[in-house]
Model the fold of this input.
Amino acid sequence: VQLQASGGGLVQPGGSLRLSCAASGFTFSSYWMFWIRQTPGKGFEWVSGINTGGDTTVYADSVRGRFTISRDNAKNIVYLQMNSLEPEDTALYYCARADDFLDYWGQGTQVTVSS
Done:
């Protein structure tokens, strides 16, 4: 199982980024997928999740209405579109596969929101 996250970077407050997570080594369409972020002060925070078919999504209160998760089962990729970014969104963002728990994680991609 491999999960490769990308798309992070430095963006100004109010800006947008789209994260991607390319999956391989398993039947991608059979698993819920999640994005989780980590900051030195808050630790780990789950951000968003999406079901196998892509028609059910969940969001943390802190990002609801600003972030959108989606997936392309033909390409084995899960996305996180992040709009109206705030300095508080600065974190290392991970994608993870969900079985009974988050059993495989990608390497993380850094998002920094700063002017």
